[in-house]
Amino acid sequence: MTTKATLLGLSYSPWTIRARWALKHHAVPHRYREHVIFLGEPALRWRARRLPGGRATVPLFTDGPLALGESYAIIEHADRVGSGASLRADEPSVRAWAERVEPALQEARVRVTRQILSDPEALTEAAASATPRFAAPLFRPLAAMGARHVAKKYEFGVNGETASARTEAALDALRAAIGDGEYVEGGFSAADLIAASFLQGVRPIDGYIRLDPATRRAWTDDALADRYADLLAWRDALFAKHWPAQAS
Ligand SMILES: N[C@@H](CCC(=O)N[C@@H](CS)C(=O)NCC(=O)O)C(=O)O
Q1: SS3 for 187-237, per residue?
Q2: pLDDT one-digit tens code per residue, 31-46
Q3: Pairing assessment for the beta strands 6-9 and 60-63 based on DSSP bridges
Q4: Which of 32, 57, 110 gets mutated to test ligand 1 (max ligand atoms within 8 A of its CB)?
Q5: Does the global pTM surpass 0.85?
Q6: How confident is the model at residue 210 (pLDDT cuts 50, 70, 90)?
Q7: Which residues line ligand 1 (CB under 6 A)?
Q8: Phi-psi region of 49 (alpha: psi -120 to 50; beta: other; left: phi over 0)
């Protein structure tokens, strides 16, 4: 591949999954690079230096002078320049889903970060993203610094009651929108990418996106997974039908 376009992301994270899905769906040439939380922050800031203000986050798509630091902007870009059926990212009813699930994603971030901090195995797995596997247990303190870095960056405490009311509200809205149908907004659209990737925070998808066991546990909420098993089944079917198989 000769393209210089790059998507920097966290492969298991909902925001990255939806952006990556859109790029793949539209066959937008790019290479994918995995971000390393905390240690990768200086490189992320450097890549994001052209973005106006705010936090440097992933997914981050860069292509020459173009830098897109919001997952929805990446979806819109893919919809504009790519090939294949439109994801209707410019339709207000489709776009609204990004805002609808955002408070729930914030809840997931808090829950997952606290969970990882409290689980030595999950910390070992996080450390393994930056060190050789055999040495990873020694680097748990570094992984814990990474988790605390996330808490500080996104302004929440590492202790306390974990809320799920916003997640439940988003899940109920999603259930009502899908009803007996196949898609969130009529036909396959960016709303489905957003909804399916949001469900990572209930129970991560199996078989498409690699996740180590303790990290998978941290992302799983068993009570919600039981209550919203219908949505997880919907998500699994959507991945089976629409997740593009080609590598990148
Ligand atoms: N509004 C942003 C939110 C992205 C976001 O929250 N990214 C987080 C989770 S993937 C992140 O970059 N975390 C790692 C870090 O900040 O180092 C978007 O839609 O792209």
Answers
A1: CCCHHHHHHHHHHHHCCCCCCCCCCCHHHHHHHCCHHHHHHCHHHHHHHHH
A2: 999 999 999 999 999 9
A3: antiparallel
A4: 57
A5: yes
A6: very high
A7: 10, 13, 15-16, 37, 41, 57-59, 70-72, 153
A8: alpha
